[in-house]
Amino acid sequence: GHAAVETLEVLRALAHAHVSAELDCLTVVSSAHIHLASGRAEEASSEAETAYNMAREHNLVEAGLGLALLVAEAALDAGQSDKVLDYGNHLSELGTGYGYPYIARRGRDLASLGAVLTSTGDRALDALQSLHGVLREAQESAAVREQLHAHVLLFRALSHLGSGRDAEHHRREAVSYARLCHADGIRNRLERD
Length: 193
Description:
single chain, mainly alpha, 10 helices, globular
């Protein structure tokens, strides 16, 4: 809360005093995270997209990858399904092209969720099966944060498809994993849903 806002003000002062694309991006990212934590996901998505475009203009590849992921995640919270699909596909391409397999995988996962949210019939079912595969892989690797990610995706997908009991199961699992990971922002958003 208050400390984050103070940090943002310090970043803004630094960015104003020193012309630096990196500081400008960091300032906008900090603001986007504050908006996201405050439940203002549309503002967070818009600000993250602004920072992403700044990073691209200045060829800040690694920052751009993280920002594109932030755009997709904020868009998900804002209910911007098309943006989730678009940025998920974009992240998959960028991660593959720049040699970042984690980013490519997260992009594919978000693109699958975007497909569930924007499609019907077989395409939506195929995308849902892909999300179940994400959970299986996370469970096999015993990676707690990956299991959190998979349960969040399945919660969102199943909620959209009207499968309330299954969605609730994944929401509860995600909340448990968020506690283990000390991911309070994610936990708070899930508890609001």
